Amino acid sequence: MKLNNPFSDAVSCLDRDVLDHTRQLDRIIGSFRIMIALFIVFVELNLGHTSPRAMVGYTLLFLYSTLWLLMQARYPSPKIGKWGYFHFVVDLLVMGTFTFLKSTLTTSYHDGLYIILVLIYLVRFGKQVAISFAVIVSAIIIYVCLCRHFEHNISLFILLGTMLAVIYFVGNIMDLEKSLREKLRYLSTHDQLTGVYNFRYFQEQLIHELERAHRYQRSLSLVIFDIDDFKKYNDSFVMMQATWCCRQWE
User: Fold this and answer.
1) Angle (CA) 214 218 219, round 5°
2) DSSP string, the chain
3) Contacts 24+ apart (CB under 8 A), 53-61
4) Between the CA of residue 192 and those of 14, 180, 199, 233, what are the distances in Å?
5) Residue 149 domain-assigned (yes or no)
6) CB 162, CB 150: distance < 8 Å
7) Are 117 and 95 in contact (CB under 8 A)?
8) Domain contains 8
9) pLDDT tens string 22-42
10) Residues spanned by the domain of 94
């Protein structure tokens, strides 16, 4: 049974906004990963790789690509969780396998998958996770270049530099966007004069607490108080002093 909120349904608490944004982002990433898997299968089939072992590999790759949409989007979390670590490790194993298998080729469409995965982890989990992924992949690339057919793998070094450039530029842009979003969020929930939470934030928290009380069948109390003769204090002293007094109640 859904609680009939006394305020607009468009208003929600901050935590719910973050989770909704994370869930939508995971759905987009999950759908994108499925599209990538289908693209790989399509290309490999057109290249004539139709052996029974290859068909099993295509099936496993497609099933794995659906896990992000099924599990990561089902249990959204702003930080990397157990399913995030699972995809992190498996993606490294898959791309490491591609690197060894394709090390004898001068060019390979698999190289672009490195950039795509770095972008996915950068957008979803931030620069630290993306840098960790890029460092491990770079170690694999360097090992392949130094130990196997170095003369044919200059493109892998170019790929390494491209990954670092992507993390640097896209990561900085995301940091600026995040800072701006947090600033806008602060301005929308705080009074500009006193710096305390405004009525919009009160609405969000009230709806959140009402729904939680309804969900757990608990009572909820709301305390409202007024400062006696505060107008006289405001008239007797300058406005800045009254503003300072209000900030002490934050």
Assistant:
1) 100
2) -----SS-TT---HHHHHHHHHHHHHHHHHHHHHHHHHHHHHHHHHTT---HHHHHHHHHHHHHHHHIIIIITTS--SS--HHHHHHHHHHHHHHHHHHHHTTT-S--TTHHHHHHHHHHHHHHH-HHHHHHHHHHHHHHHHHHHHHS-GGG-HHHHHHHHHHHHHHHHHHHHHHHHHHHHHHHHHHHHB-TTT-SB-HHHHHHHHHHHHHHHHHTT----------TTHHHHHHHS-HHHHHHHHHTT-
3) 61/37, 61/94
4) 19, 17, 12, 21
5) yes
6) no
7) yes
8) no
9) 888 888 888 888 888 888 888
10) 14-188
Q: Answer whether residue 3 is part of any domain.
A: no
User: Could you tell me if 170 and 115 are in contact, meaning their C-beta atoms sit under 8 angstroms apart?
Assistant: no
Structural domain total, the chain? 1
What is the token pair recorded at 153? 């793998």
Tokens of 10: 């468009």
CB 57 within 8 A of CB 103: no
Sign of CA dihedral 140, 143, 148, 153: positive
Decide: 134 and 119 in contact? Cβ < 8 Å: no
Question: What is the Cα–Cα distance from 73 to 70, expressed in whole angstroms?
Answer: 6
Q: What is the pLDDT of residues 175-232, one digit of tens each?
A: 787 788 788 888 888 887 777 788 888 888 888 888 888 888 888 888 887 777 777 7
Residue 221 and residue 209 in contact, taking contact as beta carbons nearer than 8 Å: no
Asked whether residue 138 is assigned to any structural domain, the reply reads yes
